Amino acid sequence: MAKSVKQQRKLAREAVLQALYAKHVSNEEAKKVLHDILIRYEFDKMTKKFVEELFNLTIKFSGDLDKHIESNLDNWTVDRLNVIDRLIMQMSLCEMIHLKSYDISHKVTISSAIENAKKFSSEDSTSFVNGVLDSIYKEL
After folding, report:
1. Which residues contact residue 89 at a Cβ distance below 8 angstroms, ignoring those fewer than 6 apart?
2. CATH of the domain at 112
3. Count of domains in the chain?
4. Percent of the chain, pLDDT > 70?
5. Virtual torsion, Cα 6, 30, 60, 68, nearest 10 deg
6. For position 1, what pLDDT does the model report?
């Protein structure tokens, strides 16, 4: 049975997070990491496009995204953040700022970020990621 758009997007965000993390730890070329992740997941055309855009734009704008994140951290720098939390926040912000054409509500993006924090990071990360993204969202 075909997966719903909602399920596809959830998987897509997980795939992008894994790809961003793989790129971060391996320092491999973005193209190769993206290629590997797209082989591992069999996405439909629309979802594949979403994954490619989210992955590439998150990398392209990571500096700007970090500035948004850092300006919402209390006495803390992005360099000190847990890598997964930082990537989840970069990716979610990228979706909210640069992928407006998909018309995804910010609530959905943030709730997906929280799910990924729960699944791939720590219990403390969920409220932290939620708090930072929520305050940035209010500025957008």
Report:
1. 65, 69, 81, 113, 129, 132, 133
2. 1.10.940.10
3. 1
4. 99
5. 70
6. 46
